[in-house]
Amino acid sequence: MNKKRFLCFSPTFVTAPSGARSVEESTVHCTRCNACVQSCPSYLSRHEEAYSPRGRNQIIRLLAERKIKFSDNETLLYDVCRSCLFCARCTAACAGVLPMAEHVLALRRAAEWDFLPASLKILLRLHGTHPTLFDMLLCVLRLFRRAGLLHLLRISGLLSLPPLYWLKHADDILPRRLLPLPSALKKHKINPCPEKPDILYLPSFEAQYLDAQQGLASLQWLADKHPLILTRTPSGLFEYVYGNLSLCMSQAKRLLSRWHALSGKRPLPVITDSIEIFVFLKHFPVLFAGHPAWRKRAEGFAAKVQFITQVVSARKTAAKTAGETVRCALDDSSLLYTADEPVLQSRKILKTLFGKNFVECEYSRFVIPAGGTAFVRGPERQNAVLENVKDVARRQIEQVYCLSGLAAWELDAALRRHYPQACARHIVHIQAKPWQNSRQTHPLYPPTRN
Taking the model in full, what pTM does it have? Predict the structure, then answer.
């Protein structure tokens, strides 16, 4: 690794139970106890030490200590980093709660590697830098899909080419009808900016641009509040995973500044329907470890972040349907970190609704590649998704509720192919009635016409 790339390790901080620390300091805390190895999907797929969390951690430590050269092992390092699914199972199994996925991300940023197809990465980056242009391009893609042009490209074989294959995968997993959330809000005459908001809603990328029903369902969970909807407000998560740290911090500062301006003297809670965004926002202070003033603001912000299921209690959820016999399970896959509170609350809600028909997968967590890793080719992704389908079939599960919209689409597409008796969907849909039949009395939701 050249000097320029090596220096990228130094200012990069990661989370730890004792607080923020550098990547090099974090890797040293690994005791090589082997607890994480058997929980790693990529190790179970390849059975090679280098592809285990322990192996990756040791490699990054040796690089940071300059005991091995980047130039001599670039091919292996590229494949090792690419194979990581960021499912956080290793961190969940680690006694020291080491953020091993963050170590891999630090190496990826230092090496300046791109794993997503270039066309997809350029499109997603426009989301944060040129939102108007991004909206236009996404609108064009929606029109192409509605007109059947993507189907024609699929038949012609063009979607199998490396620059376009992600379009084929997206077409496979996305809902048939795509509708952006701003258009749905306008259609239903919902004001996204009330005069006196008491809560801020930061919709996920999926809810905001691809599946408005997920955003509308989330708003039904907030029916007793006056949420201000933060559209066109990137969190910086994509840049953290696939971009550069400076652009990520720029977007994080923009989000913090907007939150501070909207909150005034009374800090407002921030709700999101994405488990990836939730865990990322909770660890915002790590981004500003070297900036005391911004870190203090980030700590106040992180204390106000909640996942959508945390705004209600299990007692407030809808009553169980008489004679309900559907067996369900919870997918608690997350990106980079574990998210105990949302998982516990979501599990409590499902237990209340489904009783003994709720299947707890304590020892066999679903592993859905999240945060865009679904669009990175490799055997680990396919094997992990296939194992999930087998797990669902073995347990005779009929519904899987996910905390990530992308994870729900990924798993549902795989179930349609291999086990159509089951389906997967985001947990916000469990309480949401069909929007056309909703008769909310809250001023945010105008009553439907007969």
Answer: 0.87
